[in-house]
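<goal> How does this chain fold?
<sample>
Here is the protein in question

***
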Amino acid sequence: MSLANILKTYVAKWLTSRTRVRLRRIRAEVSRRLRRKPHTVYYFHRTDDPYCQLMVQVLPDIVSRFAIELKPLVVEKLPANMYPDPVRYEAYSIIDASRLARLYGLGFSLDATVPDRLAVGMANRYLASKQNDPAFFSLAAELGAALWRRDLNAVRTICGLADVGENTLAANEKKLRELGHYASASLYYAGEFYVGIDRLDHLERRLNGLGLGDEQVDFEVHRLWRYGLDELERTIAGQSIDVFFSVRSPFSYVGVDLITELAAKTGVGINLRPVLPMMMRGMNVPRTKGRYILADTAREAHIEGVRFGAICDPLGTATWRAMGIGFALMDDEETGGGTKGQALAFFRAFMAGVWSQGIDGTSDKGLAKILRNAGLDDSWITKTISKNDTEKRANANREEMFRSGSWGVPTFRAGGETFWGQDRMWAIIDALKQ
């Protein structure tokens, strides 16, 4: 490994470390006390974001349980380059929000469709005029419910004539960018973002650590998927899960680790569907988004017990070599020459190597170590399939992922349903049970 890569690995390990997080939080708290400021949490709301409809229902509970000031800010225009496939994302998010609503016992229209655009504009401006109203969250919940069931008369009745200009929305959008994020349904507290109901447990733990709450963590239901797995074996035996992943995606690393645990405890099969990273398909990941993904993966990995942080970026050569070996191992399994699960073992070892052990996947030495970690002979370094065949097969997997309704990794297909994200194990189990 080059000196430059060694330095990058150490820097990444520091940037994603719990020690750095603790120091940042201590610094933020000292600064707050010196300035005699309250514990202020900002919430960024967008009326046509289905995840926001869930957030406005639960945030009053957060306010009642924690000694914080919660300030809602309404946004409308978000950076287009943050969403590589906005149409698929929009359609999927409605389905996903309905699943989350059922899990947490919240209201969300079962026949929700994309809201009327004129009504959305009206609703955003009305709520922007009510940002300082104590009844903001109940108003937002009522208005959102009307939007998602496309009750335009109810929207017009609630909104009336909103006395607010474009400047309020623009100022809120500017603040979101300045704080370092790009998404609605997000909370910001003292240097960190928490996006969606399935990140509220991170905020709960942080506020409890400051002595501001009731010491309870109410929003971790989605993390309780491991309970009762052993009893599911008979009911879901014989089923399988398609796993679309990229070796350069940190969320894929965590997701493949978790889905392997799920499969090991239930006996379901795993069908590997490797795809090329976005940046090797001519697409860019904006720096702001990349920073958040890294920070979010670090805390998600920590809470799930997955090692993470000593990173040696596999972009380019390392990815090509890993996928070439992985596909060759998959072929060996299919022809009966190899051991069942050897390809999965290799991909897991590779991602663990580049995301948590700082192993250089471009070198023969690094790949040999990864293969040994997977329990495989390092002769597989020379048994790789061609780059051309690798690209064809990866592209075929990507097209299959698109047809399933997803745009990015990790994506899981189970029980006829599609799930995006390493944090959807609970939903996958529900689909398998159905």
In short: The chain has two domains: 38-222, 229-433. The mean pLDDT is 94. The first helix runs from residue 3 to 15.
